[in-house]
Amino acid sequence: GSGREKDTQRESSKRQRKVTAYGRQLQEKQKVKFAYGMRERQFERFFALATLSKEATGEKLLSLLERRLDNVVYRLKLSTTRRQARQVVVHGHIYVNGKKVHSPSYLVEINDEVSLAPLSTAKTGLLSEVVDKRLSTNIKVPDWLESDKNERKGRVIRYPARADIQLQVNENAIVEL
Question: Are 147 and 77 in contact (CB under 8 A)?
Answer without folding.
Answer: yes
